[in-house]
Amino acid sequence: MKNTTKERRVRSEVMLSRMQRLTGEAVMRRLEKTSVAVFGVGGVGSWCAEALVRSGVGMITIVDSDLICATNINRQVQATSTTVGRVKVDELARRLCEIYPAARIIARQEIYKHETADSFDLGSFDYVIDAIDSLSAKVDLIMSATAAGATVFTSLGASCKVDPSKIRVASLWKSQGCHLGKLVRKRLRRRKFDGDPLCVYSEELLEPHPVSEGCGSGTCVCPKSVTGTPDDEETMAHEWCSMKKQINGSAVHITGSFGFYLAGLVIQDVMRTVDMPPQGAVGA
């Protein structure tokens, strides 16, 4: 027999009771009404989405066009030996709904890029999490979401790292030792961006080990996805590895930590908002 709405609500309240002991009831009510979009649900974004839903965030939209590959299993929440070849956002959405049935989870198997940006109502989200790999898409999302009024938190490079003590949170303009951050800043300056989003980055950089097979080679096992019709160039089969200049190694204790840091930024910001006195109040 299916659980009633009341039963799901009681279960959710019990599930989040330890969080409420930490933050207070007002924060939990605000988290329940908070809307977050996570763009890219790989090694960073998938853990961020799980941390958000386990913390009581009530509305989460996850965006990613990929299918699950066997090479994802070492670092992505939804990737297991039984889910290879399935849609990433669909598998993650199923897991998130099992964790927090009262949450509204929207899964969009789509590519975010400049040409598709108008299909996303970025201003409808309280927070936008950028966990995109593509440099051009990352820059466009940061600019578009900021212009739309959403609070943006972005992930810089999480590959080629093994030391979690080197992970930092700072203004995007002040990250150090991250090659991706340098490239992102260069493009943002070129486009006259004057926002100041926070980023998660690491000061560590290890040299990747070269490989002669697997991702990025002629023997890549990553699945291709096909949607639409063969005449539709925007939705034909694709896999991202062949489009990347270099495939770097990554470890779950780093990518997961990046995701948890991003989720923590959302939670802390909500807590500050709730604790902030209303405008015009005495002592404000």
Describe this structure in words.
By secondary structure, the protein is of the alpha/beta class. It has a single domain, classed as NAD(P)-binding Rossmann-like Domain (Rossmann fold, 3-Layer(aba) Sandwich). It has eight helices and seven strands, in the order αααβαβαββαββαβα. It has helices at residues 5-15, 17-23, 25-32, 45-54, 88-99, 135-147, 179-190, 252-275, and strands at residues 35-39, 59-63, 104-108, 127-130, 151-155, 167-171, 198-202. A seven-stranded mixed β-sheet has the order 3-2-1-4-5-7-6, sandwiched between helices.
What's the quick description here?
The chain has 284 residues and is of the alpha/beta class.
CATH architecture identity: 3-Layer(aba) Sandwich
How many domain regions?
Answer: 1
Oligomeric status: single chain
Order of helices and strands: HHHEHEHEEHEEHEH
Low-pLDDT regions: 228-238
Distance between the termini: 52 Å
Please name the CATH topology.
Answer: Rossmann fold
Rg over CA atoms: 19 Å
Q: What share of the residues lie within helices?
A: 25-40%
- Topology, number of strands: 7
Number of helices: 8
The first-level CATH class name: Alpha Beta
CATH superfamily, by name, is NAD(P)-binding Rossmann-like Domain
Largest sheet: 7 strands, mixed
Instruction: Tell me, rounded to a whole number, the average pLDDT.
Output: 87
Order of strands across the biggest sheet? Answer: 3-2-1-4-5-7-6
Structural class: alpha/beta
Strand content: 5-15%
Q: Please state the overall shape, judged from the principal axes of the Cα atoms.
A: globular
